Amino acid sequence: MMEARIETEGRDGTGLAPAGRGDIVHLLCTYVSESLRATEQWASAEGVHHTDVRAMAELGQAGRTGTAMTAGQLASALGLSSPATSALIARLEEAGHIERTVDPADRRRVLITASPAAARSAGAYFQPMGEAVTAALDGCGDEERQVIAGFLERLVRRMRSIPPT
Fold it and tell me: Are residues 35 and 72 in the same domain?
């Protein structure tokens, strides 16, 4: 198992020291803070609210897997009531960020997807974040990427299991 290392000032000749759990938590918090900063800038540029951004992120994830969401699925993912979800969907549709289509497999269902324009806008804005992750992984071998992926999968699973307060 590889040992996590962080850059430090003036420790030894390599400038690297083993990373402790606190160091890793600190770095993850810093990453989250930077991600939130970028997301808030995009939201401000697009004129959308925090919940709208979360909805667009859920729809983007669904789109990347080739699926669409119903209003009920979106409500569940966001932890919103039906009336709040209806208002959210209406607001996003009016702004041109989402599209509603009838499910071809079940005409009683309405599917919600990010509009092509919204997907392009988010893609252009967040592409540098993806490039930063890719660049950070450039020096990693297959084994190290497996360790990172395993850690992130466990982290996401545990974060999703935290009950709402």
Answer: no
Q: How far apart are the first and last CA of the chain?
A: 36
Please report which residue ranges of the chain form alpha helices under DSSP H. Answer: 21-46, 50-64, 71-78, 82-94, 116-137, 142-160
The answer on 110 and 56 residing in a single domain is: yes
Residues 33 and 53 placed together within one structural domain of the fold = no
**Mapping DSSP to helix (H, G, I), strand (E, B) and coil, where does residue 69 land?**
strand
- Quote the pTM value: 0.69
- Beta strand pairing call for 98-102 and 16-18: unpaired
Quickly count: other Cβ atoms within 10 Å of residue 46's Cβ.
16
Asked if the model's pLDDT at residue 4 lies above 60, the reply is no
CA–CA separation, 29 and 88 (whole Å): 29
Identify the domain containing residue 25 by its residue range.
1-46
pLDDT tens across 10-65, in order? Answer: 344 455 666 788 888 888 988 889 888 888 888 888 788 888 988 998 998 898 88
